[in-house]
Design a protein that fits this description.
Length: about 1200
């Protein structure tokens, strides 16, 4: 039954009772199916072949305008009240429904296609004692499946066994958390013993009791019962759907959650139907128009009642009334007749045109070569075609950091060794040169183990290494020994580093290229190659990193027997532990650190000391006792670490660049000039987030202040936020000013923007943000944050990202945009008005949930300032013009009613009414709405201030709408009364009468069409051949159709349908008719021209000023300036570049996380290595992470 229901598009799982605890048994499908758990098939499409028509029509008729036109159609088939033929409504309505249905079907087909691709992936499933290749969609909860290297994880699995020692697996979680670093998972020993033995795995009947499906990526609780023993399960035993298996030949897993119940799908968030602010405004205006239509119809119905009562009896001899019809009933029928006639105030073609315009502007984004990224062959893509104009109104941008602003690639950029700074390049005059791609790189060919992708430009450092300067050798020796990186060498000389994060891998790679190659490690030793000589150091202790210590040390014994302690850490921490003799060197190194920090680089200070053997033996004994005690273990270990980590000798400092994507600082600067506020929401630690803030020029030294919110209680968070607000604006009230907005019962609270003197930044931690997002503090948080130029939220969860976006949407009447590249950004992308996905290194989950996607953050500038602004400008021009031409068209009917006895007679020919919006005026306005631009793309980027009017709704608003109505009212008066007066008592040249109804109708509609075409010409800023063709072509088509429909032939063939026989040729050959057309057009257009002229002279807008500047620029626009990277001089410390989490050192020394032993090798600089293949030379610089520090 469920399958039948799902076939018809109905989701039966929603009716299932809420799951409290999951229970399953391995290899027992019968039991597991009884619980009715979800299968592994996913379904994001809405329709199937049978449900498409009814569901789509139901959705379309939920749009109030479509329902309204259906109601009109019903009225038109009632003969008593209809003065228009049914086809005047049914043709446009069917066209609208058809176009929308085709578009919806296309979108749903693409979703179904994606679903089918995922569901039809193959995986090996253990069924009836043998492995079978099954589709993902056929996998069930409780199945045991086999995964192979570089394959996606098919469902949420309990890891049972793997090919690696100690049952480890390495996984990449880019689709889940946006991190490309490798993580390590480990199976239980009791299940790991089964290995890849099919018989043992088939006989496995363990039972799992665990938490129900949820969206917590970092948490799992459950138990496994096997052979009457109960084993605890946590997140370290679980492989989540969306991960990729890496560096692991195979593994087996038990399916815990499948399909829509997996944590990946649970994190996708609720997909909401996004509508633009113009759509919402249109709904309000349509309601007003309906009310106005009812008012006009009521006025005319009352007029009809009065006329019938006073004058109607005179005409009964010619027009006898039906039985039972008196003046009041006639007024009632007239009301509905005028509802039909005046319905053109909301023409159904409006919605068709809007969809076409949005689709066309979406294609411009898809076709934009300036948003194409050739390196990954990725074009920009408008995945949603209904939100284009919203891109021109963005006020807040919420951005992820890793992979969005940065490339997530760490590079060893500079260093300071023994008081000398390395990394800069100078010319012969001693002037510092800007490093570009053309700058000569250091040649590392002398080192056969060097990474070919590593680049460095300062040759003096290589010379210092070759001269065997002891301080330089000690510096790189420390980098090669003091870390927790794992080395994998599957082929001789082919090294792959698995670092816990890229910055630690970058340091070890730097040491590798300068001749100190980390080769392998065991729990007791570290093997490195020093300038071609392989040495094995005995690893005696790792003094591990934690957030309080902010440093890491190792104690090693060299092959010569010398005991040494090597330490690296944050500068302020290491400086406190230096020997007094280092004071001068410390001053020089501090200057270098300030310079590095000024460039936004991540710094570490390196120090060392030699140890006395007797002292170390005694210290080691106390260390062993402290590490095995059960009471106050951490405190006692910290005391021992403090004792031995003192009187250190300073070696120098490193500077690592977390490489920004190209053009990020310039993009952020341009968006800031456009009055767009950028908030960074990242899961990284505070120091890293601050560094990127300074690198991107979001945070600047010139700022008045940067507030750090890091309190641990709600009271302290409130106090810190309040103090920050009071510092920015001392006179601000404690209670915020709330503005109630909205109509009817849809009221919303708005917090007005508060202006401050100076520029401020706000950095808030995740745990403080959790308190600040509480209902009691959210307004305080928003007030303080919105006073700041820049806001950075660090250590935030995916849910908190979405909550921040929802908070701004709740209290600010502003359009929001969220941009990210990982699955952890999906909820934020879905919460914002516009979601943008970066298709980069970190999976496609964000792209699949986004409305727009491209490969680089810098393309956001062009998306908003060019495409967004143009789309908004075109849509607003279209709406203003469309309402103008249709209100003008309709008001002429209204005035005519006073001269036709309120009889509901139409002033125009029926055929003109039918094709006015569909043929005569459709293409010219579409041409303007698809091609118009006030200035070209380069000027749009050159002057970001052009973007501001969109944020303030200046181009189309309720005020602009009412101006259109007044303009239409004036034009309609001219268009009715000038032809009426000109035709009154007028005769032809030959003396025959011309003042008949049909001639007047032809004259009125011709004046109307020419006037609206002239108005369109005034509104068009950018003329193309297409615009010209559409405008003049529409006028030509009008006259061609008019002469054809009013011809003798059409009358003879369809007598009832074409009664205007000969009207065109009899009227349009008279000079006075053409003079009337000219006079009417001039009177309609003249006030508009005068008003616009005075407006430009007295109150020019930013658009007027820029267009004037463009006209003055007779020569071509100068090429955009390519700004060199600004050096930021500062005394501020950059964040220390630590990567691994607390406790990782213990795992290294325990041997749990070590791979198989390295292959046997001789000396590092053997001739065989020197003969490495050309393919190896091209291998990228890679370092993999084994555990996520951010967790």
């Amino acid at each position: 039954m469920d399958s039948v229901m799902s076939f018809f598009g109905l989701d039966c799982t929603k009716k299932k009772e809420k799951e409290e605890e999951r229970h399953l048994r391995a290899n027992d499908r019968e039991l597991n199916l009884s619980y009715k758990y979800a299968t592994n098939a996913i379904k994001t499409s809405k329709y199937n072949l049978f449900t498409f028509l009814p569901l789509n029509l139901f959705e379309q008729f939920q749009r109030i305008a479509n329902a309204y036109f259906l109601f009109l159609l019903i009225l038109q088939v009632i003969p008593a009240i209809s003065s228009l033929s049914w086809f005047t409504t049914v043709v446009p309505l069917v066209l609208v429904l058809l176009v929308t249905a085709v578009k919806d079907a296309s979108d749903d087909f693409n979703r179904r296609k994606t679903d089918r691709q995922v569901n039809n992936r193959r995986v090996s499933v253990l069924v009836s004692g043998e492995l079978r290749s099954e589709k993902w969609m056929d996998v069930q909860v409780g199945d045991i499946i086999k995964l192979e290297n570089n394959k996606f994880v098919a469902a949420d699995l309990l890891l049972l066994s793997s090919s690696e020692p100690l049952n480890l697996v390495y996984i990449e979680t880019a689709e889940l958390d946006g991190e490309t670093n490798l993580k390590v998972k480990q199976a239980l020993t009791v299940t790991g013993e089964m290995g890849d033995c099919i018989e043992k795995l088939a006989a496995f009947n363990g039972e799992v009791h665990c938490e129900p499906p949820n969206n917590r990526l970092d948490k799992f609780t459950g138990t496994l019962t096997f052979r009457d023993q109960k084993y605890a399960l946590d997140n370290e035993r679980i492989l989540l759907r969306g991960c990729t298996l890496r560096n692991t030949e195979w593994c087996f897993g038990l399916v815990i959650f499948a399909g829509p119940e997996t944590k990946l799908m649970q994190n996708c968030g609720k997909t909401t139907f996004k509508r633009t602010s113009i759509d919402h405004l249109m709904n309000v205006l349509v309601l007003f128009i309906f009310g106005f239509l009812a008012f006009m119809c009521t006025v005319l119905a009352i007029g009809n009642g009065i006329w019938e009562f006073q004058e109607g009896s005179v005409f009964t001899a010619f027009l006898p009334r039906p039985d039972g019809v008196d003046a009041s009933f006639s007024a009632f029928l007239t009301f509905w007749s005028y509802v039909i006639i005046l319905n053109t105030v909301v023409p159904i073609s409006l919605y068709v045109s809007v969809e076409i315009i949005r689709l066309g502007n979406s294609f411009y984004i898809d076709w934009d070569r300036k948003m194409y990224y050739p390196r990954s062959d990725t074009p920009a893509e408008a995945r949603t075609t209904t939100l284009n104009e919203e891109l021109g109104q963005i006020k807040y941008v919420f951005s992820d950091k890793t992979g969005t602003l940065t490339q997530n690639i760490m590079t060893f950029n500079k260093c300071s060794i023994s008081g000398k700074s390395y990394g800069d390049v100078f010319n012969f005059a001693g002037q510092r040169l800007e490093i570009t791609e053309k700058t000569e790189k250091v040649d590392f060919s002398y080192n056969p183990l060097a990474d070919p992708k590593f680049s460095f430009h300062d040759h003096s450092l290589v010379e210092a290494v070759k001269l065997e300067a002891p301080e330089v050798h000690n510096f790189f020796r420390l980098l090669a020994l003091c870390h927790t990186v794992m080395a994998e060498e599957k082929e001789e000389g082919n090294l792959l580093y698995q670092a816990q994060s890229p910055d630690e891998g970058a340091l070890v790679t730097a040491a590798r290229n300068f001749g100190f190659v980390f080769r392998s490690r065991t729990p007791e030793t570290i093997t490195i190659v020093e300038m071609g000589v392989q040495k094995s150091y005995e690893l005696l202790a790792i003094l591990d990193f934690n957030n309080v210590r902010k440093r890491m040390s190792v104690i090693v014994q060299s092959p010569e027997g010398k005991l040494s302690l090597y330490c690296k850490g944050a500068d302020t921490i290491v400086y406190e532990r230096l020997h007094p003799s280092c004071s001068k060197l410390m001053d020089v190194t501090t200057e270098h650190l300030n310079e590095f920090a000024g460039e936004g680089l991540r710094t570490l200070v390196l120090a060392h000391k030699n140890l006395d053997e007797d002292y170390f033996r005694e210290w080691s004994t106390r260390h062993h006792m402290a590490s095995t005690t059960l009471e106050d273990r951490e405190e006692r270990l910290d005391e021992l670490y403090e004792e031995i980590e003192k009187d250190l000798l300073l070696l120098g400092a490193t500077a690592i660049e977390d490489k920004l994507q190209d053009g990020v600082p310039q993009t952020i600067e341009q968006l800031s000039k456009a009055n767009i506020k950028i908030w960074v929401l990242t899961g990284d630690k505070q120091e890293t987030a601050e560094n990127i803030g300074y690198s991107c020029n979001m945070l600047r030294e010139e700022m008045t202040d940067v507030f750090i919110i890091s309190a641990d209680t709600p009271q302290e968070v409130h106090e810190e936020l309040r103090n920050a607000r009071k510092k920015m604006k001392p006179e601000s009230e404690d209670e915020p000013t709330i503005i109630q907005r909205g109509i009817l019962d849809k009221k919303s609270k708005m917090l007005p923007d508060e202006t401050v003197d100076g520029e401020y930044g706000l950095v808030i931690n995740g745990h403080s943000l959790a308190y600040a997002l509480d209902k009691s503090l959210e307004q305080e948080l928003l007030r303080t944050a919105c006073m700041c130029k820049t806001v950075i939220c660090c250590r935030v969860t995916p849910l908190q990202k979405a909550q921040v976006v929802e908070l701004v949407k709740k209290y600010k009447q502003a359009v929001t945009l969220a941009i990210g590249d990982g699955a952890n950004d999906v909820s934020m992308i879905k919460a914002a008005h516009i979601g943008v996905g970066i298709s980069g290194q970190e999976g496609m989950q964000a792209v699949l949930s986004s409305d727009f996607s491209f490969a680089q953050f810098r393309y956001l500038q062009r998306l908003l300032l060019v495409h967004g602004r143009w789309s908004y400008l075109r849509m607003c021009k279209f709406l203003r013009y469309f309402f103008y031409k249709n209100f003008t068209f309709t008001f002429v009917h209204f005035w005519y009613a006073f001269f036709c006895g309120f009889s509901a007679q139409t002033v125009y020919d029926e055929w003109f009414i039918t094709v006015y919006n569909l043929v005569y005026t459709a293409l010219p306005v579409l041409g303007m709405s698809l091609f118009d631009q006030d200035v070209n793309d380069r000027w749009s980027v050159q002057f970001p201030q052009l973007y501001s009017p969109g944020q303030l709704n200046k181009y189309f608003s309720k005020t602009a709408f009412f101006k259109c109505v007044l303009h239409s009212c004036y034009s309609s008066l001219v268009l009715f009364f000038i032809p009426y007066a000109a035709m009154y008592d007028t005769v032809r040249d030959d003396g025959r009468d011309i003042a008949d109804y049909q001639s007047f109708a032809l004259l009125a509609q011709t004046c109307l069409l020419i006037t609206v075409c002239v108005q369109l010409g005034l509104d068009t800023s950018y003329w193309t051949a297409v615009n010209q063709f559409f405008l003049w072509g529409s006028l030509a088509v009008y006259f061609a159709i008019t002469f054809t429909m009013y011809s003798n032939g059409m009358y003879l063939i369809f007598t009832a349908s074409f009664p205007f026989i000969g009207t065109a040729r009899n009227s349009l050959n008279q000079p006075n008719v053409w003079l009337t057309i000219l006079l009417t057009s001039i009177l309609c257009v003249l006030p508009v021209v005068a008003y616009r002229f005075l407006l430009i002279q007295l109150c020019p807008t930013i658009n007027d000023k820029v267009r004037f500047k463009v006209r003055q620029a007779k020569v071509a626009l100068p090429p955009p300036s390519f700004r060199t990277r600004l050096r930021r001089r500062s005394s501020r410390r950059s964040g220390y570049a630590f990567s691994h989490a607390q406790g990782y050192g213990d795992l290294v020394t325990s041997g749990k996380y070590l791979q198989r032993g390295a292959i046997s090798r001789g000396r590092g600089f053997s001739s065989s290595i020197q003969q490495r293949s050309g393919a190896l030379q091209e291998m990228p610089q890679m370092y993999r992470a084994v555990k996520d520090a951010s967790q």
